[in-house]
Write the structure tokens for this entry.
Amino acid sequence: MTTKEMTTLSFLGFGIWLSGAVMFRFGGALMFENGPWVLVASGAGIAFSVCLLLSSIMGWRKTPADQAVTAAVVMTLPGLFGDVAYVLAFHAITGLGAATAGPYAAVVIFGTAVLFAYALFLARP
């Protein structure tokens, strides 16, 4: 994968993370503070969405399946660095209670883990 392609994927990944961060800012109370079933549904929806986005972007960019793991890592890195700041200043950024940072982090880690597992599945020989 070329440096130009990795840069493009990282900017796309950052844009996806930023749209999620804005969504969590305005819809976070609904997603993270309405009980365990809503939290499970939110985690499943996010995991499904990021896998669909990876497939769509790989198709659009004509990324070979054997590079799915690299594409997933390159796309998630900017957001993972952003999530560090997001969690450290969780209440100030989201307006949600500090106790909601745990469920938020769990959903983010779950979505990332599912994305990486999906990328491994796509890249299998």
About this structure: Residues 3-123 form one domain. The CA atoms of residues 43 and 121 lie 20 Å apart. The chain has a mean pLDDT of 93. The chain has one domain: 3-123.
